[in-house]
Amino acid sequence: MHKALKAISLLLSYPTEELIAGAPELKTALDADDAISREVRLLLGRLIDDLAGQDLYDAQERYVYLFDRSRSLSLNLFEHVHGESRDRGQAMVDLKTMYEDQGFEIDAKELPDYLPLFLEFLATLTTEEVDDLLAQTGHITAAIGERLRKRESVYSNAFAALGLISKAKPDQKLLKELLDGAEDDPNDLEAMDRIWEDEVVTFGGNAGDNSCGPDRLRTQMRAAARKPNDPLNTIPV
């Protein structure tokens, strides 16, 4: 499981010359790991083969088109449940604190909820902890994977593999609510400019006195299920 999570983290990262050059070696390592199921190896193997056959700039352009120009495919987890609300800043603080409590250091250039970073963190945890956190984020990753599948993107393989690794099925109500949301058009640059003009999310420093950890993350990940007038919204998240 842990090697597969690390591999998915790498494959969902921005393509670099090193990643593409090392793709065959990554595939060999996954094939040699009996702890990874055949289905997961096949799914990731197809994605690895695709990346290995790509021109670097073509691979980077495709990645940006999918994940950077479409909020509905954003690899920042809290984007799907908090958007640019102030709640997202606190959620970032809590997730960053969870990393630090486990001795996991993050690169300052990435937000804590960046999925490849989150998966890299999971690869350092126990199986029980991985299962818990994958279950909490399952509706988000399933929604991204389904949208990629509809676009016939080979990147959907990474999310299908993640679904196989997770022991829990995604919350179907939360998944439906995410999939029912409108998908933005990455070709509509003016609309994308308006979307990203929202205020910048900041985090750090004043985290407050609320507890952090897996239970807190569960509350934050379920935020999408709350209606505006729901009394639960009065609870700080």
Automatic annotation (TrEMBL):
Biological process according to GO: chaperone-mediated protein complex assembly; nitrate assimilation
Family annotation (InterPro entries): DMSO/NO3_reduct_chaperone, NO3_reductase_chaperone_NarJ, TorD-like_sf
Keywords: Nitrate assimilation
Pfam families for the chain: Nitrate_red_del
Keyword DNA-binding: no
Signal sequence, renumbered to the chain: none
Gene3D superfamilies given in the database record: TorD-like
One example GO MF annotation: unfolded protein binding
Keyword Transport: no
Protein name: Nitrate reductase molybdenum cofactor assembly chaperone
Organism of origin: Ciceribacter naphthalenivorans
Lineage, top ranks: Bacteria, Pseudomonadati, Pseudomonadota, Alphaproteobacteria, Hyphomicrobiales
